[in-house]
Specification:
single chain; 197 residues; alpha/beta; Helicase, Ruva Protein, domain 3; Rossmann fold; 3-stranded parallel β-sheet; two-stranded antiparallel ribbon; 7 helices
Length: 197
């Protein structure tokens, strides 16, 4: 594939491959074009907005080899793009993901935006103590912590691997002073805790 050099070349190639080998969407994208953008830009650590100024940027040999491999895995093995790039976007924020967690796509963030009404009566203009049970990547709890200043909470999951991913995201988003990750089978390790949400 020596004729593929630029980001534009790989976007076109990925789009063609996705069209030739129908793939399922829904892990953060809803069109083949967005899927190609997410894969190509994500794989070479560029912002996901698909900035046109970068389209003709020439990729390094290693980047080209990586993209060829990831496109091949996407169409042949059907591995979702967030697992290939190790990054998923939720509520406009990047989160580390891998096969130890589900890819974030919960509509619950929409509740955070409307202050969890009608289920939570107090306005979210004061700090709250929250629990994100079965946290996976930690995206819900971390998003809440970033949305409601000074809130504290616990991200809990049964699986050690999920807790490791959640901890990585806590550190990436720098909320470790307010958000704790606990391995727990349901509420087993949380009996002494009290939560507002």
């Amino acid at each position: 594939m020596t004729e593929l050099h630029s980001i534009r070349d790989f976007l076109r190639f990925a789009l063609s491959e996705f069209g030739r080998h129908p793939i399922e969407l829904g892990h953060g994208t809803d069109s083949l074009w967005d899927e190609a953008l997410a894969l190509v830009f994500g794989a070479v650590s560029l912002p996901p907005d698909g900035d046109e100024r970068l389209l003709d940027a020439v990729l390094t040999h290693d980047e080209r080899q990586l993209l060829l491999e990831l496109i091949k895995r996407r169409v042949n093995e059907r591995v979702p793009v967030p697992y290939l790039t190790k990054k998923a976007w939720y509520a406009g924020l990047p989160f580390v993901v891998d096969e130890r967690v589900l890819i974030p796509r919960s509509p619950i963030f929409e509740l955070i935006e409307v202050e969890c009404k009608p289920w939570f009566r107090a306005p979210l203009d004061r700090p709250v103590r929250f629990l994100d049970l079965c946290t996976g990547s930690g995206c819900l709890g971390i998003t809440l912590a970033l949305s409601v200043a000074e809130s504290t909470g616990v991200l809990a999951d049964l699986e050690a691997g999920a807790c490791e991913v959640a901890q990585e995201n806590v550190e990436f988003h720098q909320v470790g002073d307010r958000v704790e990750v606990i391995q727990s089978d349901g509420f087993n390790e949380l009996f002494d805790e009290r939560f507002d949400l």
